UniProtKB/TrEMBL annotation:
This is TonB-dependent receptor. Gene3D superfamilies: TonB-dependent receptor, beta-barrel domain (2.40.170.20), TonB-dependent receptor, plug domain (2.170.130.10). It is a multi-pass membrane protein. Residues 34-137 form the TonB-dependent receptor plug domain. Residues 232-660 form the TonB-dependent receptor-like beta-barrel domain.
Length: 702
């Protein structure tokens, strides 16, 4: 059992769940973690609830539980947040949230984590899920019906900096829901609302607001989750689910630029920013059918549809300037990205072949995506309409020739087709050039093979090879064209990214002591490296890349009521800067995470009292010299969090203190991910992290 599977105890001293025996639906083959040839984490409901006592930021929750996930930006946009240095495929109940054509970095802000039951995390490239899983898979499983015919739950939280209690710095969050079972019907309904106030850093100064990319600070969010399932008989079930999530800034503050050279962080002051407030609006619908005994097989069918809208704040970036519209430097515009996607996932599994030694899974996935991005205030095309079709059959085998040995192997065929409309680039791209639309098709066969060997009791060794498939940021590539006569038909930068992932490791679990150590190498001969350019516009570079690292976890159950754990992540990233085949330069903080160590102790002092303390340390990291003269070396920091829970005669009170010692620090992204020649832009985004915050909550089930 790994750190993320180390569970706090209940009031009676027993573990809440057993992640070892939980079926990993993201694996597509119904595997259990102990039989997986790669690192798998199960973030349980209890662990997520513990983290929610400290923060509502989904990126921060994942980062607190996964050391190989980047330190959070604490903003609405999480570009640069990676898993093992690569972009993960984010799913909700198996439905992809990642937008392959025009990633906005907001994939983790499509649901309120109050709606989440548990999360499955497959680390490293994953062939069975295909598109977008080059860094792994984060599959968010939504709430399930509570035991009983009808159950209601209410939750309310108040969050404030401890340095001051004012209306402008106070945040509020509330959730109401119900679930139940009636005959063959089961259902879940939940509604959440949150209003966040002004953040303060460890120096009691206002944290800088990001009016352009969007901010969680000074925002409001809503989430509605509804699910209904119908059992036709003991083996057949149909479920319809719907989730709508909106987060929108309130636009009550403007930034006051800092000074990177003097370590003065960006702050905020009351003001009226240009344009409409940034927002994220996402509606996701899924229809799932399961037949658990179709001639001895398990059939799973999923059909889904998602409508996604993302508005970014107004900015007078050099990219948006057009002298035919307004004098250079005076034109404010804001980009608006939309994506509609629908598709299906189908799998058929038989696990009783060869005297129950062989499991066979076959499946077929489809995805149809239509994306575009405009400049809303001037009605200009920023990214043309792009239609994408992905068809992918796959087969997966798992064989256990002897009890101590499990072998896995599989293949997935990816067919991808892109259609691009004719368009004209904005004026900052070579004065605006006409680009002929067109289409490109790609096909790749992805392979995976793994082995798990259990030579002696409690010990297992595992090794895995898997390939990931990813379409590059098509929108970023197309909007950056500045050469006249270019056609989408022969644009090389649209080629897919295929990532090879090799991993080997060892696990130990005797029921009290558990540990896992793994080493991985993730490489791509024609990878994607993102850099920041003038005006903060990101630029995609297609280069050979390689990331390798170590994941280590250890946990110990000191007593039935006390549990401690440690986890560590080390990674390094390199790329070929001059296309000579040699990995001669370091990937920066926009592409890899710092080394991190997380320690956690959970205790159940009595049936009424519980506690959790965690320490999160990010180590210093050095990078190659900046192309624009900036210091991008990372000065690490240590954050300590604590939370307690007290069960009342009616309901429960929870108290959390995040950043217990009020550490003043600059976020990893602000220190190490940016390298723009625009000094004003660099100073505007020199953001400090949140200082000490107090969250008091009350929850009740009835």
């Amino acid at each position: 059992m790994s750190l993320c599977c180390l569970l706090p105890v209940t009031a009676h001293g027993a573990e809440q769940d057993n992640p070892e025996s939980m079926v990993i639906t993201a694996s597509r083959v119904g595997a259990e973690r102990e039989d997986s040839p790669q690192v798998v984490r199960i973030l349980t409901h209890e662990q997520i609830q513990q983290q929610r006592r400290l923060t509502s930021d989904s990126s921060e929750i994942l980062s607190n539980l996964l050391p190989s996930y980047s330190p959070p930006r604490q903003k609405m946009t999480g570009s640069g947040e990676t898993l093992r240095g690569r972009t993960p495929l984010v799913m909700i109940d198996g439905i992809p949230q990642s937008n392959p054509l025009r990633p906005t970095g907001r994939e983790l802000h499509t649901i309120d984590f109050a709606m989440v039951d548990h999360i499955e995390v497959l680390q490293g490239a994953n062939a069975t899920n295909g598109l977008g899983a080059s860094g792994g898979v984060i599959n968010i499983i939504t709430r399930r019906p509570e035991p009983g015919s009808f159950t209601q739950h209410i939750e309310a939280q108040v969050t404030t900096p401890t340095s001051q209690l004012k209306s402008e710095t106070t945040g509020y969050k509330t959730t109401y829901g119900f679930s139940g079972n009636k005959g063959k019907l089961d259902y879940v309904f939940s509604l959440g609302y949150e209003q966040q106030g002004l953040y303060l850093d460890g120096d009691n100064k206002a944290v800088g607001v990001d009016n352009t990319q969007g901010d969680l600070m000074d925002s409001r969010s809503y989430d509605l989750l509804a699910k209904g399932g119908w059992w036709f008989n003991d083996d057949q079930r149909l479920q319809l689910s719907f989730n709508h999530y909106t987060v929108r800034g309130q636009d009550e503050y403007v930034d006051v630029p800092g000074d990177r050279t003097r370590d003065i962080a960006t702050t905020s002051e009351r003001g009226d920013p240009e344009g409409e407030a940034p927002y994220n609006k996402v509606s996701t619908t899924g229809l799932t059918y399961d037949d658990y005994d179709l001639a001895g097989m398990h059939l799973n069918l999923l059909a889904f549809y998602q409508d996604y809208k993302a508005l970014f704040g107004a900015d007078n970036s050099s990219t948006f300037q057009d002298p035919s519209i307004a004098p250079v430097g005076t034109l404010y515009d804001q980009s608006y990205a939309t994506t509609t996607k629908y598709g299906t996932k189908a799998s058929l599994t038989r696990d009783d072949l060869w005297d129950d030694r062989l499991k066979l899974t076959v499946g077929f996935d489809t995805l149809f995506d239509s994306s575009e991005q405009s400049l809303r205030r001037t009605d200009r095309t920023y990214v043309p309409k792009v239609d994408y079709t992905d068809l992918a059959p796959f087969v997966q085998l798992e064989v256990t020739p002897i009890e101590a040995l499990t072998l896995t192997a599989g293949a997935r065929y990816e067919y991808a087709h892109l259609d691009v409309d004719d368009y004209r680039t904005v004026a900052s791209r070579g004065g605006g050039v006409e680009v002929a639309g067109g289409s490109q098709s790609f096909n790749e066969t992805l392979y995976n093979a793994g082995v798990v060997w259990r030579p002696v009791k409690h010990w297992s060794l595992f090794a895995n090879y898997s390939e990931g498939f990813e379409i590059p940021d098509v929108g970023r590539a197309l909007r950056g064209i500045s050469t006249p006569g270019q056609s989408a038909d022969d644009f090389e930068n649209l080629r897919p990214i295929v990532t090879d992932n090799i991993e080997t490791g060892v696990r130990y679990d005797d029921g009290r002591l558990d540990a896992e150590l793994s080493y991985y190498v993730s490489s791509s001969d024609f990878g994607s490296r993102v850099t920041s350019g003038p005006g903060g516009q990101f630029v995609m570079n297609r280069q050979k890349t390689e990331i390798d690292g170590i994941d280590a976890t250890i946990g110990y159950q000191f007593t039935p009521k006390h549990h401690g754990s440690l986890s560590y992540s080390h990674m390094r990233g390199r790329y070929d800067s001059n296309d000579d085949g040699s990995l001669d330069a370091k990937l920066d903080g926009l592409n890899v995470s710092p080394d991190r160590l997380i320690a956690r102790w959970s205790a159940q002092w009595s049936p009424e009292w519980s506690s959790m303390v965690q320490v999160n340390h990010a180590f210093d990291r050095s990078f190659d010299d900046s192309a624009n003269g900036w210091d991008r070396d990372f000065d690490g920091y240590t954050l300590v969090d604590a939370a307690i829970g007290h069960k009342l005669p009616v309901g429960q009170v929870n108290v959390g203190l995040a950043n217990l010692f009020d550490e003043r620090y600059i976020t990893y992204y602000s220190q190490s991910a940016l390298d723009s020649p625009d000094a004003e832009y660099m100073n505007e985004r020199y953001f400090a992290g949140r200082g000490r915050t107090l969250t008091v909550g009350y929850s009740l089930k009835f």
